[in-house]
């Protein structure tokens, strides 16, 4: 039965009170998600899979409006709490004088500092919980010493890596690929390729921003220190399907992935579980854009959405170029628009004069947010213009739609290489590299994916990947088997602890 829609207010909320406590269930896994939508949602999908296997799930949360200010993140938590009544959500009390998350290059260091301040809260929560079989922390919490807390308590600690296997393989190797021979920094390499085991050559400019900083600076050193701790865990739950990234998965299991003396922990590819998109789909009221899609022909609509963070992602100039290109393409579209500087977007001011009126019969513009997974699964959706965030990539794969890549930040440029190259289900909006995708390219690429022979080939490969993704979670599928192996390893470690701390 569908859960009633409720706002989430922490452990004192009705939802939290009505949920079964960990002591009422035999086995408990504690999840410690990250502080953004893109890191929270995969954790909740893992929670759904754990529930299906009979585990109790407790979610430990840092929610502090004084330092967060992300309304999309709060909304995602509320949807999860309403949709998953069997999960117990616990909100940590705020720390005194919490540090604020810094924008730009300083974000990573400030994020680690913030999460580290809550390690005592995590310790106390785990001590107060009974029969905790394992703790799964977000990948960004590793550098904040969250796993040191689990080690002190003798609880197995795993990492939920919310991007794909290729990104994990690159991250694991980054501290070592330049070697000790005085080679240039990643920043100085420019577009020169960086070689990783299991990956195609990656232009240095496509690495994430923190490692492109001055190697003598704090930002670079913080990032590298975090990456060097990747092996210091009991295992990685990777948000991917093994067949989708076979080369990268093989590399993660190859001793050559890390230098002598360092060993990658077990990797469990558990992506595309049965709860994909389930958090969004539990809303009481169906989003109006889905009703609009119902009236459109099959595979006729281009869907444009650039992430679920709630943050602005395009300038006013860029928004006008997108609008002009969509109008000239002649194709139907559904476009999620955010204001360049945050807040509620004024569409009349941001878009070309008369654009909404001229395109009203074949286009729909939605402010801020749309239920992305549901839109992609809708039969009317024919293509997806995406920022290449990994959750979006997987949702596109699950829906079997071809994609147009427009990476913005983080590891999205590396994801783009995989989507266009090895996966072969996407084309690239190349203007992002110059800082502006012009209207002519928007028009041209939309026509390519919707009209051309190349677009039909992209669609065919997308359908093949969709079949592989569906098979991964079927009986005997790779993701289902990986989750079962993970749970078997968790139980084995628990039994060893129960016998008196024998080596697991």
From TrEMBL:
Keywords: Glycosyltransferase, Transferase. Residues 1-24 are annotated as: Disordered. It comes from the Eukaryota. It is an enzyme of class 2 (transferase). The keyword Glycosyltransferase applies. Residues 1-12 have a biased composition (Polar residues). Coiled coil: none annotated. Its EC number is 2.4.1.-. InterPro entries: UDP-glycosyltransf_plant, UDP_glucos_trans, UDP_glycos_trans_CS. GO terms for molecular function: glycosyltransferase activity; UDP-glucosyltransferase activity. Belongs to the UDP-glycosyltransferase family. This is Glycosyltransferase. It comes from Triticum aestivum (Wheat). The lineage of its organism: Eukaryota, Viridiplantae, Streptophyta, Embryophyta, Tracheophyta.
